[in-house]
Amino acid sequence: MSGSQCHLRLWYETYDRDLAGEPDDALQAVFDTGHEVGELACERYPGGHLVAHDYRHIDEALEETRRILASGSAPTLFEPAFRHQGVLVRVDVLEQLPEGGWGLVEVKSTTKLKEHFVLDAAVQLWVLRGAGLDVREAGVLTLNRDYVYDGGELDLSELFQMHPVMDDATALHDAIGAQVSEMQAMLGKSKAPNISPGEHCTSPYDCPFLAHCTKDLAQPEHGIGELPWLGPARRAELEAQGIDEIRDIPEDFPLSDLQQVIRRAVRGGRDIVHGDVQQQLARMETPLHYLDFETFAPAIPRFAGTRTYDAIPFLFSVHVERDGQPTEHIDYLHEGSDDPRPQIAERLIDALGREGSICTYSPYEGRVLQDLIDAVPEHAAALAAIKARLFDLLPVVRSSYYHPEFRGSFSIKRVLPAMVPGAGYEDLAIADGQTAAAHYALALKNAEAAERKQTFEALRAYCKQDTLAMVELRRALASIE
Ligand code: SF4
Questions:
Q1: Which residues have C-beta within 8 Å of that of residue 32, sequence separation ≥ 6?
Q2: 10 CB less than 6 Å from ligand 1?
Q3: Of 23-37, 201-215, 266-280, 448-462, where does mean pLDDT reach its minimum?
């Protein structure tokens, strides 16, 4: 699979694995979720046999797989090992079919079937058939967003959904043989293939060697990659003309209004006000509130009424500005492993009062509030009233103001330091939402009270910084003339 993304990636994984970057906490959480979902999927197949030898004991895994298949002692195998023409695969689930033959199942912790999953199944099919196994079915098992957990025992037949891919995987059969030969020839050479980084480095997966491959590349000061919504065709047109800097894009090149603003800002080396900021801010009513949620999204639903990957708020931060008074801060972090939403709803209603605009930065808080309205019906009216007071600062910035240091992004982490020099997230132990969610999930599992407390404090500090950032941003916007 690595080789189908990029031959150089396969080369590095084979000969120079240490060049890969370490997975960060958020990526590690994705891997952990994959394992958790994989283990749960196995419970769908009672009486299955796990081939437990890991990658350091491949010969033992191959031998055990052969032995179990020969004895016919298990209707299903988990992680059986097969090798064909130098390609080794471990199959998530291999089940004996009632009509004879075997079905292979690739388990994924996503909710949708993706094209590269079919390739994954096809490689396994190619190896298994090559190794002499009579495989008659292939499927990708994903989670099912339609399943609503009722709070009792998980219904595994509903939580998962099977996507049959036998026909598509079979269609790839010949191409895989050719690709494997190419990759083996490449690996047999004395030098790594000469491949430049490009769009293939992040699709279908983020390549772990990206930092290594790009470390010596000269980066344009404001590259065309900073232009939002520059489609691949336009990008290719510019590249064909040898243009990689925004400032060099010709006047007559078709750009959107915002892209033109960005080109002007980059060329002028300064910020540009291109909309009426004050007119928009004038719609806000005092006292001003600032709201930010942190959420986590368990793959395996935990609370009644939720689906896989529903975002569950576990922490909020609110700052309040009243005329002539110091800014007030209120937050709530749910420390128990029960459903946080009823407590979050109650505390939020107390924190936000009944008057004044509630600033957010993105429509996300509105979506979380809507989900809370549905999840906590006894507070639906009060929560709906809160939702009606939301005022999103993001469209104000996007429609009115650009600074070259935004570098094409309107994320508050990019916008704030550009508008308020010195303001930022650098000193925080947790500095992004995905990491926050990963740490919260880990903290709930951690029996060590002191460590849990430390994580909770870091989470609160991060969320507080998000609303404080909005306070500073709103003030910076208010000072624009
Ligand atoms: S970063 Fe890009 S070019 Fe380098 S190995 Fe990965 S996919 Fe290949």
A1: none
A2: no
A3: 23-37
Is 426's pLDDT higher than 80? no
Q: Structural domain boundaries of the chain?
A: 2-187, 255-481
Q: What is the pLDDT of residue 227?
A: 96
Q: What does the pLDDT average to over 74-99?
A: 96
What digits encode the pLDDT tens for the residues 206-222? 999 999 999 988 888 99
> Is the beta carbon of 195 within 6 A of some atom in ligand 1?
yes
| Rounded (5°) CA angle 206-162-35 | 45
CA distance 82 to 92: 12
User: What ranges make up the beta strands (E) of 108-165?
Assistant: 135-143, 160-164
Q: What one-letter code names the amino acid at 105? A: V
Residue showing tokens 């599992």? 445
The per-residue DSSP string of 263-326 comes to: HHHHHHTS-EE-S-HHHHHTT--SSEEEEEEEEE--SS--STT--TT--EEEEEEEEEE-TTS-
For ligand 1, mutation pick of 15, 209, 215, 217 (most atoms within 8 Å of CB):
209
Mean pLDDT computed over every residue of the chain: 94
Tokens coding 388: 């009606």
Q: What is the pTM of this model?
A: 0.88
CATH number (3.30.420, 3.40.50, 1.10.10, 2.60.40) of 255-481 reads 3.30.420
